[in-house]
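Please, structure for the following, as tokens.
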Amino acid sequence: MEQKGGRTLALAITILLSIITIGTVGYIHIEDFTFTEAIYMTVITIGTVGFREVRPLSPEGMWFTITLIIISIGFFAYAATFLAKYFSEQILSRYSNKKIMEKMIAKMQNHVIVVGYGRNGSQAVDELLAHNIDVVVIENRPKVIEFIQQNPKIAYVDGDATLDITLQKAGVEKAKALITALANDADNLFVVITAREMNPKIKIISRASAVTNDRKLKLAGADNVILPDKVGGQKMAKLVIQPDILEFVENIMLKRTGNISLYEISCKKIHTIGAKTIQELGIKEKTGVNIVGVRNPIGEYILNPEPNYLITHDTMLFVLGTDDQVQMLKDLIS
């Protein structure tokens, strides 16, 4: 609808310029007016303001003026109708989109808020949507919002993320995580502070441009701080040192080989059956998943744990498997 309205508006402007051009050229040839006199006479004629002619008109000039007035009246009637329709549709469309977004966000629970839809923010949104996670984007750049609106899966809030009201509209109290990917570290800092104050339990991941701001963002409440330039440099080095390993890990984590992917599984519900070893649970035999690592209660990471490793409710499992296999594992430990 916006593209059609834009084309119609361009057409209206083209017609107006064409009428002014025809009028100016006509008065120059018929009445021998100068360019300034001709354009002035054309404008007061099509504007029907009733100003006096710059010079008395010849009969040919009078007929030309009558024709110009009739054409301009028709054009202005068309233009007025179009503009009224165009702007009323724009207002109604924006109001309708706003209401739809509000209802969409109100229904969300445990969603992820992404602040800033730039290069890093848009990549984060694409990855979250690929894993069927609800996302709310906070953005205040009109052109970027127009681009976001092309994807019906993305809910968005038009506003400044450093303000409480904007985060509230995005449902920060109900969100499980917030990713702030703004280009300015100071803005990210304000977002982190505000979000942490409004939801002490939310997981916050912040982008940072300067290495010196890593500690500041964590002190402000960020759980993790990502420096894109640093990560990019490390990745380039890894592609030289261990290219196949890096591509293999990325293929598992990001691209999903078929329907197999890497998952992290919390064991908080295992207390209902008591602590058991991997072998006692029969995870591989009963579910088909492969346990590639665990995080123990004190935060240590153990790769390829032994069959006699004891799993408690504080253990985090990292497993490789299909969606169905992972669901069987969740059922097993709960």
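The chain has a mean pLDDT of 84. The domain at 2-101 is CATH 1.10.287.70 (Helix Hairpins).
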